[in-house]
Design goal:
10 helices; seven-stranded parallel β-sheet; about 15% strand; about 325 residues; globular; about 35% helix; 9 strands
Amino acid sequence: MKSPFKYSDDNKRYYTLNCFLRRKFSSKVFKVTLNAGMTCPNRDGTKSIKGCAFCSENKSGEFAGNPKNSIAEQFDSIRLKLHQKWPQALYIAYFQAGTNTYAPLDKLKAIYTAALNLPGIVGINIATRPDCINEEIAELLKIISEKTFLTVELGLQTIFDITAKAMNRCHSYKDFLEGYNLLVSKGINVCIHIIDGLPGETHEMMLETAREIARLHPQSVKIHLLHIIKGTQIYYDFVSGGFKELSLEEYVQVVCDQLEVLPPDVVIQRLTGDGDKRTLVAPLWSLKKLCVINEIDKELLRRNSMQGIKYSL
């Protein structure tokens, strides 16, 4: 059944990344996750040595490449497999692990240039922290954006400073806005990354984060659920009974409520997260990614709802 949502070319009631990329490039487009071996000011002692309370030792790069290999080598190992099935596919180089604007300018330029020169590349995605954006870096990113389809993924997670402090984020919402506004002033696409289910946050708090994102009106959004990963700070709090994980039903309800208040033209890059079953402790239901997506689709259908239905300027 075709969706009534205008930013859809299938049965989805929200603006999927697949739909956006198909319309923009008229082709199948894959993200290829790369690892530039970046560290983070929240780990190297600049701000902290603990990292964010939910972040794994791999710096959220469980499925990224091996940083001992060159960018081209990492890319080729994945591209060659995809090429066998989709020989006409195009690619986006995705720097995911660590903070990918946290290095000297010359190093950043070399890394981004290496990605630009990869075969079949039509875009670059750069994951980073908002407090690792300054004028010089923003200018470099502007130059890159003039050469390819660039998206900078900024980790916000929550608008509530009390939660961010508990998660050892080591930046405030004010810091986020400074980094975000600097990128937007340069005409750079920004994807805002948030996490649902952070300890202490209520359904209303998670919804309020989505309302604030709606006010900002970014190019795209990633909604992730909290993964409790073995060895992280929140893992020890969780196993001692310090907080409870979201149930599948709770997660579906909050995601659908968030979609309803987000602008209809904001691309939804993600509605759940990929967990590594070797280290993921909870929620184990999240390992069935397709099931989670199906439940969100069914709930929107049950409500006769869609992205942006409650959005107002």
